[in-house]
Design a protein that fits this description.
With 423 residues, the protein is α/β, with parallel strands linked by helices. It has 13 helices and 13 strands. Helices cover 34% and strands 20% of the residues.
Length: 423
């Protein structure tokens, strides 16, 4: 360890997490919510979610925390510091999953956060700042818990159906929250010293480049458009090719145009046409209407707008060529890009390298609770490799060694944050 590190940091660097305990708990939590076909189904607000949360809160109690459930259903466990007047350092993730999902997304960050608390207990380490372990509710259903904590939920939002079949309000009540008093969970800027989340990458970059730790620079913004292509449905046998107004032909050209526009400029932006519905949908009828789903993601909101404008321009040309109309309707559920704190990025990178790990600065192409936390506190994310870049799948997997590496970086980051002035 170099001369830039204090004696306290050198001593702290010798402390290591218990990798086998992390792995054992990953396996144990995976047993909650398994459906009759053996598939993972710890979807928010379901029986598996309720039971998994109870199991996790029991572990928190055994670690000396007194977990409470806020009005949004978030689980919060506080560990006292030497100076409890200081804003707490918060870290954690979520334990709910998508239907037939994997055992590492969210779970790793949650279990690793608890591991950090237990190592501090075992090593008799009392931080200056109090610590808060947070398990956010219903991350997979729209980052509901973190959104409620940082921006609030509307009455309309609380009545939206969740994957469980319950409304958000009903689901929050099921896991111990109080949707009638939802605003009581709100936190403001200054309430936290910092927020840190450990997570699997959910992509294949780290594994492909044989990098051990990803330092997340930001979480991309996501914008959706419903695209309606209107032509004229007519008899497929009796209408000559040069007299057709084929909505599907126009839609196909637009799909190719989206790919070409997204790839036409440098950067890590992505654009996807992920759904398509054709009407009337018969062998012998020229498609008269097609509805597409367009999504663009990038760390820059202006760049998203520029790409969309270029796609609109291409769409106008396609519509003219095919004698169709193409209309874009912007969806309301967009999320803005969230940049992580640069000082926190540096702390993560420095501590990872001090532990002997290779690092890479990168963006997160998926949404996370950290996206909302960044609006009220200096926030950061630590990525570890996901084998094959697979996520939201039963085949999702990160090696025990990679999980241990990430948890050790998280531990050192928390210790470093305890003596750092941010902002």
């Amino acid at each position: 360890m170099g001369p830039g590190f204090s004696r306290r940091q050198k001593i702290a660097a010798a402390i290591q997490v218990n990798g086998s305990r992390i792995e054992q708990r990953i396996v144990a939590l995976a047993k909650f919510g398994v459906d009759e076909k053996g598939r993972g189904y710890r979807v928010a607000y379901t029986k598996g979610d309720v039971e998994g949360r109870a199991w996790f809160m029991d572990l928190m109690r055994k670690a000396g925390l007194s977990p409470r459930i806020d009005t949004a259903g978030n689980i919060i466990g506080r560990r006292k510091g030497k100076n409890n007047a200081l804003a707490p350092i918060a870290f954690g993730s979520h334990i709910d999953m998508v239907p037939d999902g994997g055992n590492y997304d969210g779970t790793l960050g949650s279990i690793a956060a608890l591991e950090v608390i237990e190592i501090f207990n075992e090593q008799n380490i009392i931080t200056e700042h109090p610590l808060e372990l947070i398990i956010f509710a219903n991350e997979e259903g729209g980052t509901i818990g973190s959104k409620a904590m940082t921006h609030g939920l509307t009455k309309e939002g609380l009545q939206q159906k969740s994957q469980s079949g319950l409304t958000q309000a009903e689901g929050i009540r099921t896991i111990g929250g109080d949707p009638d008093n939802i605003a009581a969970c709100l936190r403001k800027r200054g309430d936290y010293h910092a927020w840190v989340e450990l997570h699997i990458e959910q992509g294949g970059i780290l594994e492909r480049e044989k990098i051990q730790i990803g330092v997340v620079e930001g979480i991309v913004g996501i914008v959706h458009w419903e695209v309606t292509v209107t032509g004229f449905a007519n008899h497929a046998g009796a209408t000559p090719m040069n007299m057709r107004q084929d909505a599907l032909l126009a839609a196909s050209k637009l799909v190719i145009a989206v790919n070409e526009v997204i790839n036409s400029v440098p950067g890590t932006q992505v654009g996807t046409v992920g759904k398509i519905a054709v009407q009337p949908g018969a062998y012998n009828v020229i498609p008269g209407k097609v509805v597409l789903g367009l999504e663009i993601r990038d760390l820059s909101a202006p760049k998203i707008e520029q790409l969309f404008q270029a796609i609109e321009k291409r769409a106008a040309a396609i519509a003219k060529e095919t004698k169709t109309t193409i209309q874009f309707t912007r969806e309301a559920n967009e999320s803005q890009p969230a940049l992580t704190d640069k000082r926190l990025q540096q702390i993560i990178d420095k501590n990872a390298k001090a532990l002997g790990f290779s690092t890479k600065y990168m963006q997160s192409g998926a949404g996370h609770d950290s996206q909302h936390m960044a609006s009220i506190a200096p926030s950061a994310m630590i990525f570890i490799p996901s084998i094959g870049g697979i996520s939201h799948s039963p085949k999702e997997y990160s090696t025990p060694k990679d999980m241990e590496n990430g948890a050790n970086v998280l531990l050192q980051t928390i210790l470093q944050l305890d003596i750092e002035q941010l902002g």
